[in-house]
Design a protein that fits this description.
signal; peptidylprolyl isomerase; 10 helices; two-stranded antiparallel ribbon; EC 5.2.1.8; about 55% helix; about 290 residues; peptidyl-prolyl cis-trans isomerase activity; Triger factor/SurA peptide-binding fold; Chitinase A, domain 3
Amino acid sequence: MNKKFMIGGGAFIVAVVLCIFLILNMNAEESVATVNGETIEKEELYDLLVSQYGEDALDSLITSKIVQLEAEKNDIEVSQEDIDDELASYYNQYDGEEGFQSALEGSGMTIADFKEDVEEYLAMNQLLKDRISVTDEEKEAYFEENKESFNQPEQVTARHILTETKEEAQTVLDKLEEGEDFADLAAEYSTDDTTSGSGGDLGTFGEGEMVEAFDEAAFFLEDGEVSDPVETEYGFHIIEVTDHTNEKESVYEDVEDEVTDALNDSKLNEEYSVWLEEKMTEYEINNNL
């Protein structure tokens, strides 16, 4: 029941279910495509989708229905505040709401679909919370076994100005050397619409998070230093590093909350499978696919 399923397989199942639903609501005589005038009937597409994905899609719907019924039986309500807090954690992983919505669109899922999955996930948490516990001994052991994963990696804080040509990038660099303001030039010249309005600010990132050429240049620069034009698949970048943080070894007390969350998620996944098997035997389920 790892919540990351919602951007992967979960999104695909939602898309399949939606497609089957749309097909069922088409008129019987409607075709879904033609090739040189030869029609492909909706029944052909429906049969293909059901044969390949129908069982998974139906299982997903049955599971969701069980969670819904159990939540109602146990008077569990998920507040809008809880949903918003959970969404905020995803926005942070994708550098903001816009980046997250782009990832959703790429998977064929809408924000409305995702919010429904978040609500189901949070209801599931409440249903299972009394079935799992994490001890101090478990947390300390988990930390020792996974210590390196909690280390704070080397990071830089940077901003950039992106241009289409090397000549434009050189023009920007010349203006910077003449004393013009970086943020003003980003607003005037940068083709990166997501950062030009904020002075080209890219925030803080670790090695490997940017494309290779950009990454190498950014981590080579000293604080306050500006790069020569750096070419990537997106164009030519002028990069300024504003801060640099060295790698820092993790200390248990500093990451205890993260350790607790990791263990909770792991135990939740395990307990979810056990819980679902139990509920499958309790409910009368008729699969007529």
